[in-house]
UniProtKB/TrEMBL annotation:
This is tRNA-specific 2-thiouridylase MnmA. It comes from Georgenia deserti. CDD domains: MnmA_TRMU-like. ATP binds at A6, L7, S8, G9, G10, V11, D12, S13, M32, G125. The lineage of its organism: Bacteria, Bacillati, Actinomycetota, Actinomycetes, Micrococcales. The keyword Iron-sulfur does not apply.
Length: 375
C-alpha cells in the first residue's frame, strides 16, 4: 500500500513509520505545521507540532530513507480545532482539543489530502489496535480496540474518526507492550528522538496558561459567582475560565456556612454566572450526549445495552447501560452509570466500549443526578 505517515517529531510516530516501512509499504512522511507562531518553538516539547518537532521529524525521515514533506495545515487547524476550543468554552462547555484535532486534522484534512494524492492509508503513532473480524457474508469488519499497553491507550481520542476513516488508518504501535519498549526500538533503529520527552498540555497554548489564552482571545466578561440559591458570593472576569468540578482559583473570600470547600457546579454563560456548591452535588449517574459517531454497525437503536463508558482520556471505564437514539437525522446517546461520577462537564467525550472494543462516541450535552443518588 501507499502509506502517508504522519511524523509529529516524536518517538511514537517515528517508530510507527519505521514499522510501516518494514511491513513493505510505500511510505512517505509528512509533518503537519499547525501554527505559524514562533512562540511554539519550545525546548523539551511541552506540546506538539512545534518548529523543533518539524526538525526532529525530518531527521527521522532521513534515517528511515523515506520522502519527507511539511504540509501547512495551520489555517484548517485555526478554523476547526482552535475555533471549536474557544466557542465551547464561551458556551460554558469543556472541550477536548485532542479529540477535535484527530477528527478535523489528522483523520480529515490529512487523510483527505492523502487520498486525493493516491495514498491508500494514513499511519500514525497512536496507541490503539485495529482488528479485522471476518463476517458471515465473507466481508471483514474493522474494529477499533484498546492498545495492548492500557497505560498508553489512545482509543478514547480516536473514537471520533468514524468507520470510513478507520478503514483507511494504520496504528502500528497498537501491540507495543510499553512506551519503554518503543523507546528502546527507536534507539535500536538509530532514531535520535528515542529519548525525547512526551508532549503534553494543549499544543496551541504555548505557555500552558489556558485561562490566559482564553482571556486574550475572548476578552473581559465580568459576572457573578453564585451559590445554588442564587446568592452572590463573588465576581469573575469571564465565566469561560471555569469548568465543572473546579475548586481552585474561584477567588472567594467567604467560606461556606459549614466550612466545606466549594466547587463549580455549573457555568451559565448567557447570564455570566458561575454556580458553586458542595462536592456531593457534583456526582451524576445519567448522561445525555449528542453528535454521536458509531464505529459499530451492530448496535441497534432504541435498545439499552450493557457496556462500559469512559469520560476522560485517562479516566477509568465505568459500567453503564447505554441507549442509541435517532431523532430525525441526529444521533444521540443516553447513558445510565452503574457508579456515579463527579465533575462531568458538557463538552467532554463519552466513549462507549464493550471490553476492549470501541463501539462509538458522543459529546456530553447534559449530566443528571438520578433518583438513586442521595440528596
Amino acid at each position: 500500500m501507499r502509506v502517508l505517515a504522519a511524523l509529529s517529531g516524536g518517538v511514537d510516530s517515528a517508530v510507527a513509520a519505521a514499522r510501516a516501512v518494514e511491513a513493505g509499504h510505500d511510505v512517505v512522511g509528512v509533518h503537519m505545521a499547525l501554527s505559524r507562531s514562533r512562540a511554539q518553538h519550545r525546548n523539551g516539547s511541552r506540546g506538539c507540532c512545534s518548529i523543533e518537532d518539524a526538525s526532529d521529524a525530518r531527521r527521522a525521515a532521513d534515517v528511515l530513507g523515506i520522502p519527507y514533506y511539511v504540509w501547512d495545515l495551520s489555517e484548517e487547524f485555526e478554523d476547526t480545532v482552535v475555533a471549536d476550543f474557544l466557542s465551547e468554552y464561551e458556551a460554558g462547555r469543556t472541550p477536548n482539543p485532542c479529540v477535535r484535532c484527530n477528527e478535523h486534522i489528522k483523520f480529515s484534512a490529512l487523510l483527505d489530502r492523502g487520498l486525493a494524492l493516491g495514498f491508500d492509508a494514513v499511519c500514525t503513532g497512536h496507541y490503539a489496535r485495529i482488528v479485522d473480524v471476518p463476517g458471515t457474508d465473507g466481508q471483514h469488519r474493522r474494529e477499533l480496540h484498546r492498545a495492548a499497553d492500557t497505560a498508553k491507550d489512545q482509543s478514547y481520542v480516536l473514537a471520533v474518526m468514524g468507520p470510513e476513516r478507520l478503514g483507511r488508518s494504520l496504528f502500528p504501535l497498537g501491540d507495543a507492550p510499553s512506551k519503554d519498549a518503543v523507546r528502546a526500538e527507536a534507539a535500536e533503529r538509530g532514531l535520535s528522538v528515542s529519548a525525547k520527552p512526551d508532549s503534553y498540555d494543549i499544543c496551541f497554548v504555548a505557555d500552558g496558561d489556558t485561562r490566559g489564552f482564553l482571556r486574550d482571545r475572548l476578552g473581559s466578561r465580568p459576572g457573578e459567582i453564585v451559590d445554588t440559591d442564587g446568592a452572590v458570593l463573588g465576581e469573575h472576569d469571564g465565566a469561560y475560565a471555569f469548568t465543572v468540578g473546579q475548586r481552585k482559583g474561584l477567588g472567594l473570600t467567604r467560606p461556606a456556612p459549614d466550612g466545606t470547600p466549594r466547587y463549580v457546579l455549573e457555568v451559565r454563560p448567557e447570564q455570566g454566572q458561575v454556580v458553586v456548591g458542595p462536592s456531593q452535588l457534583l456526582s451524576v449517574d445519567e448522561l445525555t450526549a449528542d453528535q454521536a459517531i458509531w464505529l459499530a454497525d451492530d448496535v441497534t437503536a432504541e435498545e439499552w445495552i450493557d457496556v462500559e463508558v469512559q469520560i476522560r482520556a485517562h479516566g477509568d471505564p465505568v459500567a453503564a447501560s447505554v441507549r442509541r437514539r435517532r431523532e430525525g437525522g441526529a444521533e444521540t446517546v443516553e447513558a445510565r452509570l452503574a457508579t456515579p461520577l463527579r465533575g462531568i462537564a458538557p463538552g467532554q467525550s463519552l466513549v462507549v466500549y464493550r471490553g476492549t472494543r470501541v463501539l462509538g462516541q458522543a459529546t456530553i450535552a447534559e449530566a443528571h443526578r438520578g433518583a438513586a443518588l442521595p440528596a
